[in-house]
Amino acid sequence: MGIRTQTLLIIGMATMVLLGVSLAGAYRVVGRGYRELEEVHVTENLKRTVAALKVELADLDETVHDLADREMSCALVQGRHGAFDTSGIVNSTFAIHRLNFIVYLDLNGRVCFGDAFDLATGSRLGLPPSLRAAVEVRSPLTSHAAVADTVMGVLRAGTRYMLVASRPILAGGKKESICGTLITGREITTQLIGRLGGTAQLSLDLFDANDSSLPPPRPHTASGFTPDISRIAIKSLGHGRIAGYAWFDDVGGGSGCVLRAAMPREIYHRGRIATNTLMGILVIAILIYGLVVVSLLDRRVLRRLADMTHRVSNAATRRGGMERKAEEGRDELGELSHAVAGMIEPRATTAHATKHLAAMDAATEGIAIMNDEGLYLYANRAYVGLFGYDRPHEVIGGHWRDHFEEVEAARLDEGAFRPLAVVGRWRGEAVARHADGAEIDIELSLTGLPDGGIVCQGRDVREQRQARRERKSLELKLRQAQKLEAVGTLASGMAHEFNNILTSILGFTELTRKALPEDHEARRPLDKVEMASHQAAHVTGSLLAFTHKDPTSKARVDGCEVVRASAAMLEPILPGSIELILELPDRPAWIQADPRHLQQALVNLSVNARDAMPNGGRLTLRLRETAGDEVPDRAVLEIQDTGIGMTPEVVERLFEPFFTTKGLGSGTGLGLAVVHDIVKDHEGMIQVHSKPGQGTLVRVCLPSVMEREMVGTF
After folding, report:
1. pTM of the full predicted structure?
2. Could you give the CA distance from residue 54 to residue 153 in angstroms, rounded to a whole number?
């Protein structure tokens, strides 16, 4: 095992030991802190539970105070109310105050009156023997030292637990002497525990103080508890829950009870998650730190030692020179490497230099070497050939700026040579000046040398640039053709299917109309169905025309009649704010065209012109024939509006399928695409002239019949 491997192994083992110790210590400290915080949280929740219990006791105390101050109570315990029975305390008294029992005792502790009440059924139960025995025992409940004395707490009666409140019954007008005791109670039922738990937002349960499943208690010292709580305990319940236990002494002297407040272990679990996250980050940080340290040590020390050993061994085997490396640095290892190389390096290197120069001269890529001032020290034939020279000596000794225009030289100085001084390499394209004065596109690759010199590699990239431009253009055309072909196929299929459906709708509509009387009320809705169907047929006709699936029937027609027919179709759909003007020649203008398709093109262009004039204006349909130097022997249709006009960007995309500047639901983007296809099918051409705010002029040039006949005679 080499020294490099041993060193890396020792560092790795030390890092793992450090990581393990750190994790163990962190888990111990942080875990203990979260457990202590959780116990504090449980204790605070016990306080909230006892506070809710104190509210119940306070309500009970207020009730017993109100009943004890009544004259009826004093008369009862002094024997002056002989007729007192269950009618003395009505059921509503139990129900309103949520009482389960009421007991009146005289000064000797004898029960003068007692009764129990079932709040669930609303029935009187009579005082149970276990409860009578519990209240007749001499206890703090019946031993009042002062007239304002009040006793509240928990009382065990058999297997039941009661919240009880006791007050003395006072005699005399000034209520200064005690003549008996009134005790009221409220059973701690499941409903009461649920209500207390909802108030404190906890899950509560009640246990006997002698239950063997309870955890060992400890005397409580936390502030905020009533004196009736003698001990508390905290215990984990498993399944992600923890509980706090509070021991309540029995005011009657019994064994008492224990109230358990259970809650999820959110603090501990969240703490564990946070701790695991922190530990994960710590592990990653330590591992990264260890890897960085090992990598730096390996790169700066161990690898260099191993490399130097290998080179010394190779030099000794070849009996030649030892290879020197510029990146060895100037530290102790670098000095040692240079010293060893100096001792065993052979002095003769001329043959190696000659071979290197011959190899560079034979390279097909241009290679040159410049000094730190930018002067050429060496250039091969391929490099000087880039600039139109035949021999290297025509370039060697000159400055690199001599082969670039001043602006380009400044750009290279700022964008290439300055970054080169920082990162040591640069690659990019530049425009150089050829020996004959022409501009040439070249690719340069610059590499800095330790002494400040620069190695420059260059090659001509004019052909590659032209090839890239042509390829990009062809790709764009191919994608556009594929897109149009796909759209055309889809639109054609949909139009044919839709036409079939429309044919059925129109046929059944006509049959239904014939079957109905002339004055039948359903004829008007049928007319609307037929009108909507014809409109849908017009849309499918546009799709078929766009995809060349609607056959054309060309004939010799008068262009003036086509324009007049189109104008007649436009009049119902043009608002009164738009003036329609026809400018037609005095004689017929014969063209070879499909009048239906040509009318569709004129209507589509006119509808677009109408939409461009929301505030009104003039729409001019003009037909003229050209001659002379203009487009010879052509019929020219012009559609001109005074609308809002268009930007050059919109004009450029005007005839693209599905391109529209109208809002959602206001246009399909097929109208002008159909126009373009119709004009193309008629061997014509279309031009658009428009500027924002200056209206639009659309010029459609179609071959006249005379021109077509002349072409056919050759």
Report:
1. 0.38
2. 9
